[in-house]
Amino acid sequence: MGDAGVAVRHHRLCRPRRLGNSGTAPAPASGGRLMIRIDVTRQLGAFSLETRFESETAGITALFGRSGAGKTSIVNMLAGLLRPDRGHIDIDGTVLFD
Predict the structure, then answer these.
(1) Which has more pLDDT, 66 or 57?
(2) Which residues have a Cβ under 8 Å from the Cβ of 16 and sit 6 or more positions away?
(3) Residue 27 pLDDT > 60
(4) Calpha distance 82→54 (Å, rounded)
């Protein structure tokens, strides 16, 4: 992790679930594991966030880094609150942005 980098950690405490249109939480297609692939660029004023990572998790995933590293921006993009300027976010085969 560089000076302004963001790291990802996993903790096996519970299985991640996502809600479908029916309101139920289907099991991830990858046998209980959830695959997250992020390759995005976002310009925020003078700050340019360029991040790329791939993570397979079956529990809680923590995102941490220095102040101003872009953690909140990544979470906001995952939540759909912020659109990346370029790139894609893929959660277990479902592409959020491309």
Answers:
(1) 66
(2) 28, 34, 57, 58, 59, 60, 61
(3) no
(4) 20
